[in-house]
């Protein structure tokens, strides 16, 4: 299960190559799904259009939502848009850039589905067969209005006895298929022209703003990822300390009941574990939970991070009052000089 979670987190990274790979996978999956789908029009009045248009636009909506779910930046975008101002100002340009990036990738698979349905023509024929003007075809001259409407409804079902081997059905079907393919090719040409213009005209504008927005968009995403990873690390350490504190507090009760474990060299086993932990902590990184002793302090830290994100300035250390933060989650020890370490806010 951990391997699948790691793979999913990897595909949710902000790397452009990975996200483009996800878009390609969704597009290929769209082609496979459509090619394996067995289309059967109901050939009933008032249901043909509903079924044909529903099949043309409902799966793209599902694929669009899947594209948003697979893109990590969609969640980061909403968080950046809705977060309080705090100590860090919000740049609408970053939100617009992230929104454009998310929408471009999420719309890839839905556009592939719509183009496939239009080029294939089956959904278009099913949806609009009843709306064809019968005056364009000479074969309907000797039919009543009700017969014409029933005939047009049965056009998508070529095996039906009413329209089987009927030249009128073939003419209507060929007309609608050509119209569907013309619309599909027109949309594809329009998308290619828009992409060409966007790519060719982009160097004509000032690139400084684009580079800045791309940089801060990646920064917001990476900052959120590092914050989540650091929170997991702190949660693990805090849980470890709580468990050790529980067993240490049970020492007197265990002794009173005569359940104390045998000692080694006069030192109880739980104290040995605590000493070993302290030695490892001194040999490795500093204590990650200085001053944090209960759940309320941790909640206060997380609330402060959300409501008042630190300014993007690490030239000087920011030392908030202890009463506001209730402790520090800094990875670094207090002996480090301010000029060589980041703010305690940004270490969370």
Task: Outline the structure in words.
- The chain has 348 residues and is mainly α.
- Helix content is 65%, strand content 0%.
- It is built from 14 helices and no strands.
- It has helices at 2-11, 16-36, 48-70, 72-82, 92-106, 108-120, 122-128, 145-153, 167-201, 207-249, 251-256, 269-283, 295-307, 322-325.
- Helix 6 runs antiparallel to helix 9 (167-201).
- It is elongated, with a radius of gyration of 32 Å.
- Residues 281-286 and 321-348 have low confidence and may be disordered.
In short:
This protein is mainly alpha-helical and 348 residues long. It has helices at residues 2-11, 16-36, 48-70, 72-82, 92-106, 108-120, 122-128, 145-153, 167-201, 207-249, 251-256, 269-283, 295-307, 322-325. The protein contains 14 helices and no strands.
How large is the count of helical segments? 14
Number of strands: 0
Main sheet characteristics:
none
Radius of gyration equals 32 Å
- Indicate the structural class: mainly alpha
**Tell me, what's the shape?**
elongated
Order of helices and strands: HHHHHHHHHHHHHH
Q: Mean of residue pLDDT? A: 78
Give start-end ranges of low-pLDDT stretches. Answer: 281-286, 321-348
Helicity, as a percent range? 55-70%
Q: Strand fraction band?
A: under 5%
Q: How far apart, in Å, are the first and last alpha carbons?
A: 27 Å
Task: Note the topology.
Elements: H1 2-11, H2 16-36, H3 48-70, H4 72-82, H5 92-106, H6 108-120, H7 122-128, H8 145-153, H9 167-201, H10 207-249, H11 251-256, H12 269-283, H13 295-307, H14 322-325
């Amino acid at each position: 299960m951990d391997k699948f979670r790691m793979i999913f987190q990897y595909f949710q990274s902000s790397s452009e190559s990975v996200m483009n790979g996800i878009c390609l996978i969704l597009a290929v999956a769209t082609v496979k799904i459509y090619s394996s789908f067995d289309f059967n029009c109901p050939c009933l009045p008032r249901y043909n259009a509903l079924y044909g248009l529903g099949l043309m636009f409902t799966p793209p909506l599902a694929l669009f939502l899947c594209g948003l779910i697979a893109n990590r930046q969609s969640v980061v975008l909403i968080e950046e848009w809705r977060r309080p101002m705090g100590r860090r100002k919000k740049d609408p340009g970053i939100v617009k850039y992230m929104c454009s990036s998310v929408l471009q990738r999420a719309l890839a698979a839905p556009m592939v589905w719509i183009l496939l349905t239009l080029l294939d023509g089956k959904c278009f024929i099913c949806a609009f067969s009843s709306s064809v003007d019968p005056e364009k075809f000479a074969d309907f001259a000797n039919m009543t209005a009700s017969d014409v409407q029933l005939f047009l409804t049965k056009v998508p079902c070529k095996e039906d006895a009413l329209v089987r081997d009927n030249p009128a059905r073939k003419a209507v079907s060929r007309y609608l298929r050509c119209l569907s393919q013309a619309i599909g090719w027109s949309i594809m040409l329009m998308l290619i022209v828009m992409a060409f213009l966007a790519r060719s005209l982009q160097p004509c504008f000032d690139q400084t703003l684009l580079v800045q927005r791309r940089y801060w968009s990646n920064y917001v995403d990476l900052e959120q990822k590092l914050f989540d990873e650091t929170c997991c690390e702190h949660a693990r350490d805090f849980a470890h300390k709580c468990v050790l504190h529980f067993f240490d507090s049970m020492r007197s009760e265990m002794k009173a009941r005569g359940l104390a474990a045998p000692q080694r060299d006069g030192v109880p086993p739980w104290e040995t574990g605590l000493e070993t932990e302290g030695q490892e902590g001194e040999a490795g990184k500093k204590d990650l939970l200085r001053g944090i002793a209960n759940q309320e302090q941790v909640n206060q830290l997380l609330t402060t991070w959300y409501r008042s994100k630190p300014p993007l300035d690490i030239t000087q250390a920011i030392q908030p009052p202890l009463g506001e933060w209730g402790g520090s989650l800094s990875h670094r020890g207090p002996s480090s000089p301010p000029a060589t370490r980041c703010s305690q806010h940004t270490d969370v």
